[in-house]
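Quick one: SMR family transporter from Pelagibacterium nitratireducens, structure tokens please.
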Amino acid sequence: MTYVFLLCAIVAEVIGTSALKAADGFTNLVPSIIVVVGYMAAFYFLSLTLRTLPVGIAYAIWAGLGIVLISIVGWVVFRQALDLPAVIGMGLIIAGVVIINAFSRVGH
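--- reply ---
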């Protein structure tokens, strides 16, 4: 269940962060509520993850995949450009997450 909780935390964070643009400095009510609820859910599920996974590993996975997913949302939904260095950097982040999960004995 640890990784299910972590996945929920990542998805909630991406939803909350995506709504930040539409919240327009918290001047639009519905997107602002989505931001607050998204971040509350993200931290709740992250706290459940920390019951069994070390904070450094959990945070690395949460932040890394969150960066990649929000960049994809920005590209697809908001039409924000991703140049080659950005794509390479995100590839390295994904590689780091894979290495942590495949080879690290911490938390297993």
